[in-house]
Amino acid sequence: MSIFPTKVLLATDGSGDAELAATTATSLAKSTGSELHVVHVWRPVPSVHFDALIRQEMGREAQEILDAQVKKVEGLGATVAEGHLREGDASEEIITLAAEIGYIQPPKSDIRWSRHPTGHLGCRRGGTERSGWNQGGQGVQHHLLRYPS
Description:
The chain has three helices and six strands. By secondary structure, the chain is α/β, with parallel strands linked by helices. Helix 1 (about 15-30) packs across helix 2.
């Protein structure tokens, strides 16, 4: 069993931080010979009128973001095994995709995580939270991803 990853999953939103993450993921994949996957998740905005048209345009823009990131990674010398475009909650979609491609083992229990407004992320599988990061507070978002038992 190798201590190096066999798969790297790069989640991107097209931001400046995503560019830095792409450079790091590319370097890691190249140096370890890992399979590199790129994912972009988008969430539709509900609209009373023109729902199909707005949805189509948002999907097209999301595909452009993914394609641009794949092109950037390939320009840095890495081979992208697959680009994944997902729709829905970013955290849930990324974790689900990670399990689908074998990056992580599907959990046998729920995954709970919190995101602080400063960007700090805490995560725990199953059970109850026991650490300070998940005690709440202003602006802290709590999430729960349930897996069937």
